Structures are given as C-alpha cells and as structure tokens.
Amino acid sequence: MTVLWMVLLILGLVVLVGAATSVRVVQQFERGVVFRFGRLQPQTRGPGLAVLAPLADRMHKVNMQVITLPIPAQDGITSDNVTVRVDAVVYYRVVDPVRVAVDVQDYGSAILQVAQASLRSIIGKSELDDLLSNRERLNQGLELMLDNPAVGWGVHIDRVEIKDVVLPESMKRSMSRQAEAERERRSRVITADGELQASQQLAKAAEVMTSHPAALQLRLLQTVVEVAAEKNSTLVLPFPVELLRFLERSTPSGPPPAQDDERAPARDDQRGDPGEIAAGEPVGGGDDEEDRPLHPPVDEEPEQRDGGERDRPAEAGLPADGGEHDEGDQHQGGEHRFSLPGRA
User: Fold this and answer.
1) Which of 32, 184, 199, 230 is the most exposed place for a label (fewest CB within 10 A)?
2) Which InterPro entries does the record cross-reference, listed alphabetically (predicted)?
C-alpha cells in the first residue's frame, strides 16, 4: 500500500506539473503563436487562458503594440557635398504575428538595421536645404524605403521622423552670414518700396497744393504748431521758394498812391540845407514823370513866409505861390517872394 500511495502521489505531481505547463495567459495586447512538435498551428491564441497540449505544444507571444525605435545618428554627405549628422525615430507595429514569428528571427533588430541604411541613403540623395526646410518630403521617402521590406515581415511602419541635423561649425557660420545678408537685402528692398510709395503720395499732395496754393501755407503753419508744441526755444522753419512766388503773385501790382506835396517828406538833399534846391533836380517830390525841364540853380535861399512856412521851389518863370507877379517885385499884403535869375 505504501508503494501504491507513493506511485499515486508521483502521478498527481506529474499531472499538476503538466497542467501548469499546458496553461498560458495571453495579455490583451499580445497574440500567441503555437508550435506543436515544431509545426506551426494556423490558429493563433487570443487574449485570456490558452490551453496547450502537455509536452507537445510551445507558444510564442508577439507584442501587437506600437513600438518606438530611435535610429542612432548617422554621418553622411549630402548631394551638395556637406557633411552632416542626422538622427531619426521610427514608429511601427506588428500586423501579422505568424509571419513575424516564422519569417524573421528578430524583427526589431531587422527594422533597426534597415532604418539606418535607409537614413544614410536619404542623406546622400538630398541637399542641405531639403534636410533643413523640407523634412516632410524626406520623412515620406524614408517611410516608403522602410515599409517595403517590413511588409514582408508582417510589420507596418506607422511614421518616420527626422529629429535633428547637426552641421559643422564652419557651415553654421557660413549660413549665419548668408542669413544676415538676406535680411539686409530684404530691409533695403522694403526701404526702397517705402520710399517709392512715399514719393507717389507726395507727388499727389504736390498736385493738390499746386491747384490750391493756400494749402501750402496751412501745411507750413501746421508744421510750426507741431514744432512749437515741444517747448523749444529755437525754431528752425524752412521757407520754400514757392511760397515767395505765391506771395509775389498775391501782392497787387501798380503805382503807389500819390501823396500830397505838402505832406511828402523832404528828401535827403533837402534835409541837409533847408530852402536849397540842387541844380538839375526836378521840382516837386523828385519823380518827374512828365519830363519837365530841370530847375536852374538857385542863388538865394528862399525867404520865410509870414506863417513860418518856406516857399516851395518853383520852376523858372512861374510864381512860387501860384499867383501872377513880375520878376523883382514883391507881393502885396505882407507876403514875401524871391526872384530868380532870368533865362539867357
């Protein structure tokens, strides 16, 4: 009996060990590929408990999640002969667990090696400007290069991204100088465009001011007001020549109004010697518009009238006070007169 119990106990332990080895748990994100005596079973095992034949079945679990695979930085020379260092990242997932388990030994390592080779190939076919500014097209090209062999392995490439492009220091300085020159060119073009637009507007404003001359004065006064608002002690005001011409046209042209001979101021030569008339000077205020003969030189100074006023110089042969008299005679009634030498 003791031997029988021992045999039964051993058989029970064997059954327990076999049952433990024949039951597997498959996670939700996994799929189980079963091999029975090394032969692939067509049906894969889904999530949950998977019961296998003891000592006959072997199960290989395949992860169905999206896997992130960083590609190490690769050195290469672009098509325009620039040495660069580029790294990238690949996102892929398994779509056929049977082919992944049977057709490729280590699909993760295979995807990594293909990604490195494809990245170096993309670097050699592209220019530096494309690597820096047109990465979207390069990402699509790299994704196509990776997807072609990966489809045969049961792997789908979701996305490929170029992360960083490392340039030599000399190339960085050259690019900085190029960017600075481009900025300078743009600034000059913008300044020239602004000058052109300003000149066009100023030309239109000049046409308006030409048709309305008063607008120039108003603009000048507005400028004065703007400058004076800053509380400056000195005001520098430009005075255009056009304004002088406008003022000249606005001034009425014509002879000055005639003044009364008695109210007209004395001339400089009359102020120097009262009562003396220079020889050859016209009688009156100095403007002889009727081409009258000049007065002969005066020998005697004119006498004072009773009222204290000097007699006006008269022409030869004419009385000083406008009345009729004889030469050498005197007026009656207390009025004085002077005689002039007779003509030859």
Assistant:
1) 230
2) Band-7_stomatin-like (IPR043202), Band_7 (IPR001107), Band_7/SPFH_dom_sf (IPR036013), Stomatin_HflK_fam (IPR001972)
Do residues 140 and 78 make contact, with C-beta atoms less than 8 angstroms apart? no
Q: What residues have CB less than 8 Å from 56, skipping those under 6 apart?
A: 36, 37
Q: Is 185 exposed, middle or buried (0-12, 13-18, 19+ CB in 10 A)?
A: exposed
| Residue 133 resides in a domain | yes
Counted domains in the chain: 4
pLDDT digits (tens, 9 = 90+) for 122-135: 999 888 888 888 88
Tell me the residue type at 334: G
Which of 148, 62, 65 is CA-nearest to residue 101?
A: 62
Tokens read off for 18: 């076999």
Asked if residue 73 and residue 118 are part of one domain, the reply reads yes
Interior angle at CA 61, CA 93 and CA 144, nearest 5: 20
SS3 per residue for 236-273: CCCCCHHHHHHHHHHCCCCCCCCCCCCCCCCCHHHHHC
Hey, which bits of 78-116 come out as E strands? 83-94
Q: Is residue 230 part of a domain?
A: no
Query: Do 53 and 109 share a domain, yes or no?
Result: no
Give the C-alpha separation, 91 to 158, whole Å. 5
Which among 277, 274, 272 has a CA at the least distance from the CA of 310? 274
**Domain extent at residue 214:** 203-220+236-250
* Whether residue 283 sits in one domain with residue 242: no
Q: How far apart are CA 217 and CA 212, in angstroms?
A: 10
Q: How far apart are CA 237 and CA 254, in angstroms?
A: 31
